[in-house]
UniProtKB/TrEMBL annotation:
Gene: purN
Organism ancestry: Bacteria, Pseudomonadati, Pseudomonadota, Alphaproteobacteria, Hyphomicrobiales
GO molecular function annotations of the record: phosphoribosylglycinamide formyltransferase activity
Keywords: Purine biosynthesis, Transferase
Protein family: Belongs to the GART family.
Pathway(s) of this molecule: Purine metabolism; IMP biosynthesis via de novo pathway; N(2)-formyl-N(1)-(5-phospho-D-ribosyl)glycinamide from N(1)-(5-phospho-D-ribosyl)glycinamide (10-formyl THF route): step 1/1
Taxonomic source organism: Methylobacterium brachythecii
Domain Formyl transferase N-terminal as annotated: residue spans: 8-187
A Pfam family it matches: Formyl_trans_N
Function description: Catalyzes the transfer of a formyl group from 10-formyltetrahydrofolate to 5-phospho-ribosyl-glycinamide (GAR), producing 5-phospho-ribosyl-N-formylglycinamide (FGAR) and tetrahydrofolate.
One term under GO cellular component: cytosol
Name this polypeptide is given: Phosphoribosylglycinamide formyltransferase
Domain of life, source organism: Bacteria
Binding positions for N(1)-(5-phospho-beta-D-ribosyl)glycinamide per the UniProt entry: 17-19
Site (Raises pKa of active site His): 150
Length: 217
């Protein structure tokens, strides 16, 4: 019996790509529903490019500094994605804001992982924001990408406790462990069609229940 066709996925990174590596490792399983076929970065010096190449995955830099406008850079990304036959895009520490047109073109087919329990603490410095706010739980969120930053429909979240004496680094260390567990699971849900975006909301397949939310402590 042959396995179902795998969804062709590109991962976009700007840095070392630790979440990218966790997804690549998960995708090695024969029954994983996604195949990582391309890694792109807006930074030629991004460590994630070398890590992807070492895993045998085509990796390419499209330097945003070489483009006069956000739209022209996005057009170059679009061309690379289409050339590779990409069906789903995963952002893994990709530190660029897309044009609305690019986001709309990939609506329901582009996901991101963010280091907070959205809708709390959008943007950057999320761990500092959590400590400043005095929350007892922090974590990470996988969501669909929409034009508004960090505001897309939520696919999955994982929570960690905020402990007495935590600083931003210790909290980040605890969250990243959950990120590496959560992103491959959330991608599998999306790639297998079990968490599609419909009318601005994530609709989990029958029987997903709490499994779809993927909460963890």
């Amino acid at each position: 019996m042959s396995l179902p066709k795998k969804t062709r996925v590109a991962i976009l990174v700007s840095g070392r790509g630790s979440n990218m590596v966790s997804v690549i490792e998960a995708a090695k399983a024969p029954d994983y529903p996604a195949e990582i076929v391309l890694v792109l970065s807006n930074r030629p010096d991004a460590g994630g490019l070398a890590r992807a190449a070492a895993a045998g995955i085509p990796a390419k830099a499209i330097d945003h500094k070489q483009f006069a406008t956000r739209e022209s850079f996005d057009a170059a990304l679009e061309a690379a994605l289409r050339e590779a036959g990409i069906e789903l895009v995963c952002l893994a520490g990709f530190m660029r804001i897309f044009s609305a047109g690019f986001v709309e073109a990939w609506a329901g087919r582009m996901i991101n992982i963010h280091p907070s329990l959205l809708p709390l603490f959008r943007g950057t410095h999320t761990h500092e924001q959590a400590l400043e706010a005095g929350v007892r739980l922090h974590g990470c969120t996988v969501h669909y990408v929409v034009p508004e930053l960090d505001a897309g429909p939520i696919i999955a979240q994982a929570a960690v406790p905020v402990l007495p004496g935590d600083d931003a680094d210790s909290l980040a260390d605890r969250v990243i462990v959950q990120e590496h567990r959560l992103y491959p699971k959330a991608l599998a849900l999306v790639a297998s069609g079990q968490a599609p975006l419909k009318d601005g909301r994530v609709v989990f397949a029958a029987g997903q229940g709490a499994k779809g939310a993927l909460h963890s402590l």
